[in-house]
Design goal:
- The structure is a homodimer.
- The first copy, chain A, contains 6 helices and 3 strands.
- Chain A is mostly helical.
- A 3-stranded antiparallel β-sheet of chain A has the order 1-3-2.
- In chain A, a hairpin with a 7-residue loop joins strand 2 and strand 3.
- In chain A, helix 1 packs across helix 5 and helix 3 crosses helix 4.
- Chain A is globular.
- The two termini of chain A are 25 Å apart.
- The relative contact order of chain A is 0.11.
Chain lengths: 172, 172
C-alpha cells in the first residue's frame, strides 16, 4: 500500500504537479469565499447553509443527526453545534427517533425552509462568481466523474477520520 | 456584487450542480486522506509536509513566517504552531530577518531536507492513489487553468480571511 513497500513512486509530471497545486489552492480558498459571502449577506455560515439544504432535500425534511453529520463530513459533535445554532433561530427542531431512545433527528421548520430560500440567491450568485464562471472550456461531466472517484477512493481508506474528530496523536 | 442586487441568479444546471457537489466532497475528503497517509507512515501532518516542501523550494531554503503562512493559506499563529513543532524536531530553525527586528524567517535545516526526502515517496504514492490515478480522461491543463481562476478570483475578495483566523461574529 505504501510507496516505500514497492520502490520509489514515479515523480509527478509537470502537468500533474500543476494540477495538484491548483487543486490545493482552490480547495482552501473557494469554501472561504463562499462562506464569506454567506456570512456577509445572510449572516449564515456555509456549514449552516449546507445543513439546511441537505434537510430540505430529505424525505419528510428530516435526517438523523449521524446521517446529517456524515453528509457534511463533520463529526457528530461538530454537527450538533451547527444544529444548536440553527435550532436557536427556530430554523431546525430536534426530534427523537421513534423506537430509538438514543437517536435524534434534525427536522427543517417552515422558518428554516423560508430562510434557505432567502439565502439561496446569495449562494448561487457566489458559486457562479467563484466557480462556474471560470469553467467554460472544461468538460464538466468528465471532471465530475473524476472528482467522485477521488472521494470514493479516499472513503475506502479505513483511517480517514471525520474532519474535526481528534487526529492520530504523535509526538513532535 | 450580490445576486439580490441584480434579481435572482440563474439556477445551476444539473451538470453544474453535480460538479459543485463532487468538488465539495473531494475538497473535504482528499486532504484528510493525504494527511492520514502521512501521519500513519511518516508521523507528519500534511501541513507540516507542505511547510517543509515550500521551504525547500525557496531561495536560501528560507521564507518569512508571514510569506510561509500566506503560501499555506494559514494565519501567522497557525503557521507558528506548525513551525514550532518542526523546530522541536530540528527540521526547521527560526532566524531573525536582518534589519527588521519584528520579522522572522523559517529556515530548513539539513535534517529537515532529509526528512522531506524520506517522506516524499509516501506523499507521492498517496497523491497518485487518491487523485492522479483517477484523472486518465481529464484534460489536465484546462482544468488546472480553471482551478487557478477559482483561486485568483476568491483572493480578490477583500473579506476572505485566512483559514483559521477569527471569522465575522454573528448572533445566532
Amino acid at each position: 500500500m505504501t510507496g516505500a513497500d514497492q520502490g520509489p513512486p514515479t515523480p509527478l509530471s509537470g502537468e500533474e504537479e500543476a494540477f495538484l497545486r491548483a487543486f490545493g489552492r482552490a480547495l482552501l480558498i473557494v469554501p472561504r469565499a463562499l462562506d464569506a459571502d454567506l456570512l456577509r449577506e445572510q449572516h449564515m455560515s456555509l456549514n449552516e447553509y449546507t445543513a439546511l439544504m441537505l434537510l430540505s432535500e430529505s424525505p419528510g425534511l428530516r435526517l438523523r443527526m449521524s446521517d446529517l453529520a456524515a453528509a457534511c463530513s463533520l463529526s457528530i459533535s461538530g454537527m450538533t453545534r451547527i444544529v444548536s445554532r440553527l435550532q436557536a433561530q427556530g430554523l431546525v427542531r430536534r426530534e427523537q427517533c421513534p423506537g430509538d431512545r438514543r437517536g435524534w433527528y434534525a427536522a427543517l421548520t417552515d422558518s428554516g425552509l423560508a430562510r434557505l430560500g432567502a439565502a439561496w440567491p446569495t449562494h448561487v450568485a457566489s458559486v457562479r462568481r467563484h466557480m462556474m464562471d471560470h469553467l467554460a472550456e472544461v468538460d464538466l461531466p468528465t471532471v465530475t466523474a473524476a472528482l467522485r472517484r477521488f472521494a470514493s477512493d479516499a472513503l475506502n481508506s479505513s483511517d480517514v477520520a471525520p474532519v474535526d474528530a481528534p487526529r492520530v496523536p504523535y509526538d513532535p
